[in-house]
Design a protein that fits this description.
It is built from 14 helices and 14 strands. By secondary structure, the chain is of the alpha/beta class. Helix 4 (about 60-70) packs across helix 14 (about 365-380), helix 9 (about 180-185) runs parallel beside helix 14 (about 365-380) and helix 10 (about 195-210) runs parallel beside helix 12. The chain binds NADPH dihydro-nicotinamide-adenine-dinucleotide phosphate and N-acetyl-L-glutamyl 5-phosphate (X2W). It catalyses: N-acetyl-L-glutamate 5-semialdehyde + phosphate + NADP(+) = N-acetyl-L-glutamyl 5-phosphate + NADPH + H(+).
Length: about 400
C-alpha cells in the first residue's frame, strides 16, 4: 500500500497505542475518529506494520535513537537501514542495546533498494544529505534531521555552512517541522526539515511570546548547553573523555550555525527581522540540553502574562510543558523523552525575564520530533509511539 493510501485511511481511523492507552490530549485533535486497536510484535515488525520505513544513517546517534523509538510504534516498521563505514553490519553489532529488534542489515546508500519503502528518516551529516535526498524516489515522504533544508534563504545556508547548496529546487518544497508551530504545513509536506536541537529549545518558548508581542524582539540573549551526543558519534579530538569531563566549554562563540535558524523562526514570529546573541556550551553529559534565555518585556507586560500565554499555547500539547511557578526545569526532567519543559522567572532587573527550556537533544531535539512529524505526515495521532516517560535519575 502506498503512503498516500495510509495517510487517508488513518486520517479517518486513527489508532490506539499498542497497549490500548490513548493519550487524553490526543482526543481533542481526533474528535469524531473511530479508533482501532493494533497488535505489535517487535520480532516481526516488518511483516505486521503498515508503513515501511528506511532509516538512512542508522549507525549514528540520531539514527539509532529512531530505531529505539520505533520499537514501540504500532504502524511503522523498518525495512531498510543504511550506514557508511559500518555498511554490511547488523545494528546489534554496532548498538547491542537494540539487539532485541529483528532488523535488516545496514547497507551503503548506493546499494539501498527503496522499492519496499514508503518514508525515510534521513540521519546523515549536512552537506551529504542534499545529494542523497535529490536521488531518492519522489514517492517517498522524507523527514531530514540534518540542517540541509532548514534555511529558506539559500545564500544564508551557503554563508553559514560554507558550501554551495546542491538541491535548491528541493529547498522550495521543504517545510520546517517545528511540529507545535507548523503542524498544518507538516501535514501536507513531502519533505520536512527537522529543526536543530538548539533552535527547538529556543523557539518553543519564544515563538508564542514574540507572536503575542509580550517580549521585545531585540536584545535577546541565549545561553545554551548541550550533551556531547549532540556532536554525533564520529570520533573527534574535542569530544574525547579527557577534553569533556570535569569542565564545560563554550564553542561557536559569536558565530554558531544555529543562529540563522533561530533568527529565521523568531523573525517569522515577529514579522520583522530579529537578531539574537547565542552561545552554546558543551557539558560533561551524554545527552540533554538547556537554553537559558534573557528577554526584555514589552511595555506594561508582567511575568504572569508570559506564563498565561505559554499555558494557553501549550495546554493542549502532548510534549511541551509549562512547569508550575517557581519550578526550575532540569535536563534530568526530559532525558530519554520527547518532552520540552519550560518555565519563566522574573529577573532581579525590572522589565526583564529569564526563560529556561530543557529537552533531550536526541529526542525532542532530533529523532523524537522527527517521529512526531512523520506521524503528522502520515495522519496518525501525533504522539503515537512517543509517550515515553523521562528517565530519572
Ligand atoms: N546528535 C544530535 O543531537 C543531533 C543531530 N542532528 C543532525 O542529524 C544528523 C545525524 O546526526 P548524528 O546521528 O548525531 O550523526 P552521527 O555522526 O552519529 O551519524 C552519522 C550517520 O551518517 C552516516 N554517514 C556519515 N557519512 C556518510 C556519507 N558520506 N554517506 C552516507 N552515510 C554517511 C554514518 O555512517 P557510519 O556510522 O557507518 O560512518 C552514520 O550512520 C546530522 O546532520 C546532525 O547534524 C540534528 C539534531 C540533533
Ligand atoms: C554538541 C554539538 O556539537 N552540537 C551540534 C549541534 C547539534 C546538531 O547536530 O545540530 P544540527 O542538527 O543542526 O546538525 C553543534 O553545535 O553543531
Amino acid at each position: 500500500m502506498s503512503s498516500a493510501t495510509f495517510s487517508s485511511n488513518f486520517l479517518q481511523t486513527g489508532c490506539l497505542r499498542k497497549d490500548g492507552f490513548n493519550n487524553p490530549k490526543d482526543k481533542k485533535r481526533n474528535v469524531g475518529k473511530v479508533f482501532v486497536k493494533c497488535s505489535v510484535n517487535t520480532k516481526t515488525q516488518k511483516a505486521e506494520k503498515e508503513v515501511r520505513l528506511g532509516v538512512l544513517g542508522a549507525s549514528g546517534y540520531t539514527g539509532s535513537e529512531i530505531v529505539r523509538l520505533l520499537a514501540n510504534h504500532p504502524h511503522f516498521g523498518i525495512t531498510l537501514m543504511t550506514a557508511d563505514r559500518k555498511a554490511g553490519q547488523s545494528i546489534a553489532s554496532v548498538f547491542p542495546h537494540l539487539v532485541s529488534q529483528n532488523l535488516p542489515k545496514m547497507v551503503a546508500v548506493k546499494d539501498a533498494d527503496f522499492s519496499d519503502v514508503d518514508a525515510v528518516f534521513c540521519c546523515l551529516p549536512h552537506g551529504t544529505t542534499q545529494e542523497i535526498i535529490k536521488g531518492l524516489p519522489k514517492s517517498l515522504k522524507i523527514v531530514d534531521l540534518s540542517a540541509d533544508f532548514r534555511l529558506r534563504d539559500i545564500s544564508e545556508y551557503e554563508e553559514w555552512y560554507g558550501q554551495a547548496h546542491r538541491a535548491p529546487e528541493l529547498q522550495k518544497e521543504a517545510v520546517y517541522g517545528l511540529t507545535e508551530i507548523s503542524r498544518e504545513e507538516v501535514k501536507n509536506a513531502r519533505l520536512v526539515a527537522n529543526p536543530g536541537c538548539y533552535p527547538t529549545s529556543v523557539q518553543l518558548p519564544l515563538v508564542p511570546l514574540i507572536k503575542a508581542n509580550l517580549v521585545q524582539p531585540k536584545n535577546i540573549i541565549i545561553d545554551s548547553k548541550s550533551g556531547v551526543s549532540g556532536a554525533g558519534r564520529g570520533a573527534k579530538e574535542a569530544n574525547l573523555y579527557t577534553e569533556i569531563a570535569e569542565g564545560i566549554y563554550s564553542y561557536g562563540v559569536t558565530r554558531h550555525r544555529h543562529v540563522p535558524e533561530i533568527e529565521q523562526g523568531l523573525s517569522d514570529a515577529a514579522n520583522s527581522k530579529v537578531t539574537v546573541s547565542f552561545t552554546p556550551h558543551l557539558m560533561p553529559m551524554s545527552r540533554g540540553m538547556q537554553s537559558t534565555i534573557y528577554v526584555e518585556l514589552a511595555p506594561g507586560v508582567e511575568i504572569k502574562d508570559l506564563r498565561q500565554q505559554l499555558k494557553l499555547s501549550y495546554e493542549d500539547e502532548d510534549f511541551v510543558v509549562l512547569l508550575d511557578e517557581g519550578i526550575v526545569p532540569r535536563t534530568h526532567n526530559t532525558r530519554g523523552s520527547n518532552y520540552c519543559f519550560i518555565n519563566v522567572f522574573p529577573d532581579r532587573i525590572p522589565g526583564r525575564a529569564i526563560i529556561i527550556s530543557v529537552i533531550d537533544n536526541l529526542v525532542k531535539g532530533a529523532s523524537g520530533q522527527a517521529l512526531q512529524n512523520l506521524n503528522v505526515m502520515m495522519g496518525f495521532p501525533e504522539s503515537t509511539g512517543l509517550l515515553y516517560q523521562p528517565l530519572f535519575p
